[in-house]
Write a structure and sequence with these properties.
The chain is mostly helical. The chain is built from ten helices and no strands. It folds into two domains: 17-92, no CATH class; 97-206, AhpD-like, CATH 1.20.1290.10. Helix content is 63%, strand content 0%.
């Protein structure tokens, strides 16, 4: 029988050699290796790896990996639906009539509303790369209305925030977006908010873990 000192030593060694074990254990939808995917699952996964999302540096789509991460890993459970969602997501992300910076800003607003840590982690860097002021993102992460927004940023923020919290938008808020971006812009803004509600739901239900060493970026709101 091991002594208590030996047990403590084994526990310490395990913690050092397996630091990510706890985070991965929280994932409800276990990762599926390519070798264990059905033909439909593999078709979807390979399409994701070959598509534009993989070129953004997504942590969920690492070249040479033997699987794909969430939310795509969760989508695998319904591969035919996943394939349709892939088309929708690629249009929303890469073919929107909205400027990339504002599109990513709307995604961050949605992630903040849903407290989706992984969604924020995945898109924060993309928003900053597209030109979003880091101070605006920090205000948003802390649950504050961002200060110093441009007219366009305020229009996107007001519309998205009202849509999430009031489930509708006022005439003035609608007019600010339609006057600036047209009816297509309004539709594209609704779509990016709506699609990333789905993504946030998936990630939250899955309890998708952040990469090793990454601290939760969003503080808990009351």
């Amino acid at each position: 029988m091991m002594t208590w000192k030996a047990l403590v030593l084994v526990a310490a060694l395990f913690a050092v050699t397996c630091p990510a074990m706890g985070q991965e254990d929280q994932r409800r939808f276990k990762l599926i290796p390519f070798t264990e995917m059905t033909p439909d699952q593999r078709k979807y996964a390979e399409g994701m790896m070959a598509g534009p999302t993989s070129s953004t540096g997504s942590a969920a789509l690492k070249p040479g990996a033997n699987t794909i991460g969430s939310p795509f890993n969760v989508y695998l459970r319904s591969p035919l639906l996943a394939e349709q969602l892939r088309k929708v997501a690629e249009h929303i992300r890469f073919k929107s009539s909205l400027p990339t910076k504002l599109n990513e800003f709307a995604i961050l607003i949605t992630a903040r509303q849903w407290g989706s840590q992984y969604e924020w982690f995945a898109h924060h860097r993309l928003a900053l790369k597209a030109g979003l002021n880091p101070a605006l993102a920090e205000d948003l992460a802390q649950g504050r209305r961002p200060t110093g927004m441009s007219y366009d940023e305020a229009a996107i923020y007001n519309f998205s925030q009202e849509l999430h919290t009031k489930h509708a938008v006022s005439d003035a808020t609608y007019k600010a977006v339609v006057d600036r971006f047209g009816e297509q812009g309004v539709m594209d803004l609704i779509a990016v908010n709506g699609y990333y509600v789905l993504v946030s739901m998936v990630l939250n239900v899955d309890r998708s873990p952040l990469p090793d060493g990454v601290k939760p970026p969003l503080r808990q709101l009351k």
